[in-house]
Amino acid sequence: MNPVALVAAGPTTTGGKLTLMVIGxxxxxxxxxxxxxxxxxxxxxxGEKVQAAAFVGPTIVLLIVGLIYPAIxxxxxxxxxxxFIDTSIxxxxxxxxxxxQKLFTTPGLGEVFRNTAxxxxxxxxxxxxxxxxxxVLIDRARGEAFAKSLIFLPMAISMVGATLIWKFVYAFNGxxxxxxxxxxxxxxxxxxxxxxxxxxxxxxxxxxxxVIMIWIQAGFAMTVLSAAIxxxxxxxxxxxxxxxxxxxxxxxxxxxxxxxxxxxxxxxxIAIATLKAFDIVQANDGGTGGDSVLANEFYRRTFVTQxxxxxxxxxxxxxxxxxxxxxxxxxxxxxxx
Length: 337
Fold this sequence. Notes:
By secondary structure, this protein is an all-alpha fold. Helix content is 72%, strand content 0%. The termini are far apart.
């Protein structure tokens, strides 16, 4: 088929998609090579500046188009009500600060804030603690590589996949005479206890979803902290041993101070990931069981209940909560540099 005809066919056909992809790559390559050729015409400091602009420029443009411009639109949308386009008047009406006021007056959002606080407090703390404990226990032990791979495996699973796995673990059969296929309820009934509906017991279901996130993030914490422990100079460890330091005192006075920056990095990174947690709640019940969090509520208010103004406010709130963590992380990295 003629390439022009393939492009005209649009992205609905395989040929059209492949042609558009090839044309896009060729255009990008032509523009990039052209910029480099023009930059090569300049010499000295001016040439260096032009070449730097040639490399950095496309990145800046992509950041503006893909990040800054959408962020500006999100902030603007927070001051408008209605749906994306109010069909009754043809446009979204300006409502000022009303969407921000809804954060405190909309039923159910208080529960969302409580759940998010639990996630942000428990997930980074427990995941980092478990990862650190595991890294210390298996350091230089036999089968260390195999032991590390076991706890790191959940990192290779998507959050949706991990949630589906744990839904089988938590599965509940409400029939008193039925067979419990969930692992936990099978264990409970096996020892003579009553089965428990883990995913529908408000507010405990939030804690059981938090377990999934901890299961995923503990492997990341263990990997980073284990590398930090191995980077401690042997001279410091040997000197501490000569002074009679061992066991828990070795961990408290030597290991932990030496990996302080790594612990902060891991904790803050997991905290940021937790604030953006969406997949686990959405894959479970979409937040309809009293277990919604900010990221999921942003999606639900924007696309399900058609309240994009309130959804934009929630997105801004997530950004405001993440920003101090990022600033703190950057400052710590500069101190350790």
